[in-house]
Design a protein that fits this description.
330 residues, Rossmann fold, binds iron/sulfur cluster, binds tryptophan, Tyrosyl-Transfer RNA Synthetase, mainly alpha
Length: 330
C-alpha cells in the first residue's frame, strides 16, 4: 500500500435520507478522496441538536439512515474512519478547552451565524450552543489534525474560523500541535430538483438516493419541462426545463445533441425523460441493492460505527493528551 497523502475530515448533520444533491455535492467527492487520503467522516449528531434541540425527533434513526446512504454510495469503513461525533467524547472536551481561548466576537462575526439566526424562523437560536456551532466544528476538525476539509462554499467561513483558532492555540502555547486545515472546495454542482429549483429538502423537490427503480420513472414523469411546448414537434426551450438540467449533469456526453433535438422539435419530452430515467436507474440500482442489504440487518450499521468509534477514539485520545499538557492540565 502506498502512503496516503494527508488527513481529511468532513462531517454531515444527520438529517435522515440523503438525496441526489448530497451525492453530487459531496459524497461522490468523499468516495474519491478516500483512495488518497486518511479520511475521517463524522456524523455530527451534536451539531444537529444546535438547531433542533426543542424538537429533536429521532436523531438516532436519522443517523442510521444517513450512514446507510453513505455506505451504499461507496464510503468504505475499511478505507475510511466512519463514526459518530457523540461516540467520541473528546469532541466535547476539545470544544470546552478551545472555548477558553475563543473571543466571543470571533463567533459573532462568522457570516453563517447572523444569516441563519435571521433565516431559521420559529426557533430560538439565541443559544450558547448555536453561537458555538463553528467552534464545535473546529474541534471536530482539529481533534484529528486534519490537513484539509472538503466542503461546499457555504462552509468555507467555518474552515477559515478553524484556521484562526488553530493559529491562536499554537501561538498561545508555543507549540505546533495543530495544522491549519485547508478548505477543499467541492466543485459546485447545483443539482436541480424536480421543479428545476435547487434540490433541497425544504423545497420538497428531492430525489432520494434510496428511491426504488419503479419510483424513479414516476418521479421523472412528474418533472417540469418547457411548459410552452404543447405538441411533440413544437420547438422547445431546454434551458427552462428540469429534465434538461439533469441531462447536463448525468448525460454530459449527449447534452448538445439533446439540446439541439429539443430546440428543433425532433425529440419528444416523453422520450427525453426516458433517457434520464434509464440513466438514473443504472446509476442508482447498485446503491439500492446495497441499501436493501443493510436495511435487512441494521445491526451491521451500528457495528460499523462502533469500529469507527474505536479508530477515531485512538487518534482523539492522543491529541487530547498533547492539548491537556499544553494547557497545563497534565
Ligand atoms: N457544519 C457542517 C454542515 O452543516 C457539518 C460539519 C460539522 C462539518 N462538523 C464538520 C463539516 C467538520 C466539515 C468538517 O455541513
Ligand atoms: Fe425538456 Fe427534453 Fe422536453 Fe426539451 S425535449 S422540453 S429538454 S424534456
Amino acid at each position: 500500500m502506498t502512503a496516503k497523502k494527508g488527513v481529511i475530515l468532513s462531517g454531515m448533520r444527520p438529517t435522515g435520507r440523503l438525496h441526489l444533491g448530497n451525492l453530487f455535492g459531496a459524497l461522490d467527492n468523499w468516495v474519491k478522496l478516500q483512495e488518497e487520503y486518511n479520511c475521517f467522516f463524522c456524523v455530527v449528531d451534536w451539531h444537529a441538536l444546535t438547531t433542533a434541540y426543542e424538537d429533536p425527533g429521532n436523531i438516532r434513526e436519522n443517523v442510521k439512515e444517513m450512514v446507510i446512504d453513505w455506505i451504499s454510495c461507496g464510503l468504505d469503513p475499511e478505507k475510511s474512519v466512519i463514526f459518530k461525533q457523540s461516540d467520541v467524547k473528546e469532541h466535547a472536551e476539545l470544544h470546552l478547552l478551545l472555548s477558553m481561548l475563543t473571543p466571543i466576537s470571533w463567533l459573532e462575526r462568522v457570516p453563517t451565524y447572523k444569516e441563519q439566526i435571521q433565516q431559521i424562523e420559529g426557533r430560538n437560536l439565541a443559544t450558547y450552543g448555536f453561537l458555538g456551532y463553528p467552534l464545535l466544528q473546529a474541534a471536530d476538525i482539529m481533534l484529528y489534525k486534519a490537513d484539509a476539509v472538503p466542503v461546499g462554499e457555504d462552509q468555507a467561513p467555518h474552515i477559515e474560523f478553524t484556521r484562526e483558532i488553530a493559529r491562536r492555540f499554537n501561538h498561545l502555547y508555543e507549540q505546533e500541535i495543530f495544522p491549519e486545515p485547508a478548505t477543499l472546495l467541492t466543485e459546485y454542482k447545483v443539482v436541480p430538483g424536480v421543479d428545476n429549483r435547487k434540490m433541497s429538502k425544504s423545497y420538497n423537490n428531492i430525489i432520494e438516493l434510496s428511491i426504488s427503480p419503479d419510483e424513479i420513472s414516476k418521479r421523472v414523469k412528474m418533472m417540469v419541462t418547457d411548459t410552452g411546448r404543447i405538441k411533440k414537434n413544437d420547438p422547445g426551450n431546454p434551458h427552462v426545463c428540469s429534465v434538461f438540467s439533469f441531462h447536463r449533469i448525468f448525460n454530459k456526453g449527449n447534452m448538445l445533441e439533446i439540446e439541439e433535438s429539443c430546440q428543433k422539435g425532433q425529440i419528444g419530452c416523453v422520450q427525453c425523460k426516458q433517457i434520464v430515467s434509464d440513466w438514473m436507474k443504472d446509476h442508482l440500482q447498485p446503491m439500492y441493492a446495497k441499501r436493501r442489504e443493510l436495511e435487512k440487518d441494521p445491526q451491521l450499521v451500528w457495528e460499523m460505527l462502533q469500529g469507527g468509534r474505536e479508530k477515531a477514539g485512538k487518534v482523539a485520545r492522543e491529541t487530547m493528551e498533547a492539548v491537556r499538557s499544553a494547557m497545563g492540565l497534565a
